[in-house]
Amino acid sequence: MKTAGRIHPVYAEMERTVFDRMSALAREHGAINLGQGFPDGPPPPALIEAASRALHEKSNQYPPGAGLIELREAICGYYARRQGLELAPEQVTVTSGATEALAAAIFAFVKPGDEVILFQPAYDAYAPLVRRAGGIAISIPLSPPHFRYPAEALDAALQERSTLLARSGLPDPAPVKPRVLMLNDPLNPAGTVASHAELAMIAKACVEHDLIAICDEVWEDVRFDGVPHRSLMSFPGMAERTVKIGSAGKIFGLTGWKVGWMIAAGHLATAISRAHQFLTYATAVPLQWAVAEGLSLPDAVLDEQRNGWAEARARLKAGLTQAGFVVLPNAATWFLTVDLVASGIALSDREFSERTVIEAGVASVPVAALYQGEEAPEHLVRFCFTKPTEVLDEAVARLARFRETLTG
């Protein structure tokens, strides 16, 4: 059968993801993988025990499509305790990871021709999902080292879109304005967090321009600055126009479990639940039982794991700094970003990442791969720090030797 022209152009033109490519290179060359983000340490034992019990004692058949009521109640309780949000179980839909939640939300609200505001850098699933829904991604780049959200650029994106059709000369042009805004806070790959003022500015824009906000908040509890997370959903006028997305994989460091959720109110909740039912319908029920228990654990249990991540972050940052690398500010996620130009390295991020995995035996991710278009900075690379001490130390030693070959 001839397949030319039959594959959807989003997939026909799609390159292999940077995470998959760099991890494959790491396996091929036996490199230390600081590219793809996942912890190597053991998860909280209570969760493994809970999953094991559920396999033996609970149902292994289809759960409700929206998720176990016990898990949805636990999610509501967790956010009430941690973020002061008042939620009801009927607002929660459990998904097979946060990426499925993103897909369901985008497919529920983005129609062909709709414009969607994306801030860059961004998780590389955003733009392809928007295009697959028929939407048009309007990208607003954030600039290193602090990756602040520019009010002027957001205002321009919202105001100028309404005149494009009129300029085209088409008869009876209708105004065109974005319908959806996507926000990732804390921000991957930068590891930065939006300030209260920035969130308030974004919320105000959403209300004034009648935008639905899809908020990827999977890193909400992987923070190291001592300031608690605040969801965009909590700002005035946002409860009825926000989809909040969370991830057990990030909260507990169990990325392979692929248990996520999305939270919305009223007709938004109905729409995303309908989209979800034709993507995966349901997520592994024993893992849902386990996550429900995990979300009810005392904060001290999870704090111990987060303290370990914080120590790994400090160790990798100190090691890279001592080796001559300039590390950008970081307050969240499992990642540190290195500025190659400031570090005296005259390689692009892609060249650096490909050479270090082959020549130094350390995999990283070029940050330019997480931008769309031509405005990407090409001097930033991302390293994952949630690895054992000896692995981080060896990675730093290898990178230091490699840097000496370039600058010595």
Explained architecture:
By secondary structure, this protein is α/β, with parallel strands linked by helices. It has 15 helices and 13 strands. The protein has two domains: 143 residues, Aspartate Aminotransferase, domain 1 (Alpha-Beta Complex); 253 residues, Type I PLP-dependent aspartate aminotransferase-like (Major domain) (Aspartate Aminotransferase, domain 2), CATH 3.40.640.10. The strands form three sheets. It has a seven-stranded mixed beta sheet with strand order 2-8-7-6-5-3-4, sandwiched between helices. A four-stranded antiparallel beta sheet has the order 9-10-13-12. A two-stranded parallel ribbon has the order 1-11. β5, α9 and β6 form a beta-alpha-beta unit. The longest helix has 24 residues. It is globular and about 60 Å long.
Secondary structure blueprint with pairings:
Layout lengths: L8 H4 L5 H12 L2 E2 L11 H13 L11 H15 L8 E4 L2 H12 L5 E6 L5 H7 L3 E6 L9 H10 L3 H5 L11 E5 L11 H13 L3 E5 L25 E6 H5 L7 E4 L2 H12 L7 H11 L3 H24 L3 E2 L7 E5 L9 H12 L1 E2 L1 E2 L13 E5 L4 H19 L1
Parallel strand pairs: 1-11, 3-4, 3-5, 5-6, 6-7
Antiparallel strand pairs: 2-8, 7-8, 9-10, 10-13, 12-13
Helix pairs in contact: 2-14, 3-12, 4-12, 5-6, 5-11, 7-9, 13-15
In short:
With 408 residues, the chain is of the alpha/beta class. Helix content is 43%, strand content 13%.
